[in-house]
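Pinned message: reference record for L-arabinose transport system permease protein AraQ
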Amino acid sequence: MKLRNHLLLNVFLLLSVLVVLVPFIWMLTVSLSPSSDPFRRVAFLIPTSFSLEGYLQVFQQAPLARWFMNSVLLTSVLTAGQLMLGVLAAYAFARYRFRGRETLFFFVLCTMMIPPQAIMLPVYLVVNSFDWVNSYKGVIIPHIASAYAIFVLRQFFMAIPRELEEASRVDGCHSVQTLYHIYLRASVPTLFGVGLIQFVNNWNDYYWPFLILNDEMKMTLPVAIVQFRNDSYIEWVPTMAAATLSVLPVIGIYVLAQRYFTESSLQSGIK
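Predicted structure (tokens):
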């Protein structure tokens, strides 16, 4: 009985993995197919003939390096800002007592429940009033604070014994030193885990950069990928080639930070 249940569980997990991987395999398969009728040259998600035409077309016809650097710049700055503000806000919510703290934190959590599309128009009007349309400031500043980062880091900070903070006060540490020596050093895996999730979300963000950035040379990779189309059809092979290249940095970062991400999940579950 246990063997059968174990076998069924393995089959279910295998099917789940296949369901998740099929879109990525299809993307890679189309990107390696010839430009002429790529879908007819695919059998069971495997191209019947391989070609690098799509990748050559991407590098020859598009400023891919510029789009890549735009994505790296915006994603890095935005993620760093979200972590910095998240740490400061989480420390204040976790350790300071002030009037309206719980109410304010409740409103922070409420922002996680509002679909981004619901507030795009008012945020766009504010950005437009500051003349930040078609600028990196218009992409970064409206999303520089992350309720998710604040929530996760606050929960972790609250699990740290207050005696450690009191001991640092006795040793002469002020608030900034206590935050660095006690809280930040203890939360390195959590910071890596939150930073990885935020980096992936920021890297894959399409709607807001598409709404703000009009200049082709300022576009990020998710926005620029749709440039391989005209009024009548989409050039699927170069589009999938560009999409495949845009996924590689995220995979690389996850592989390098996987240990910290796992530690963050385990610590959150234990505490």
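Pinned by admin. Summary line: The chain is about 70% helix and 0% strand.
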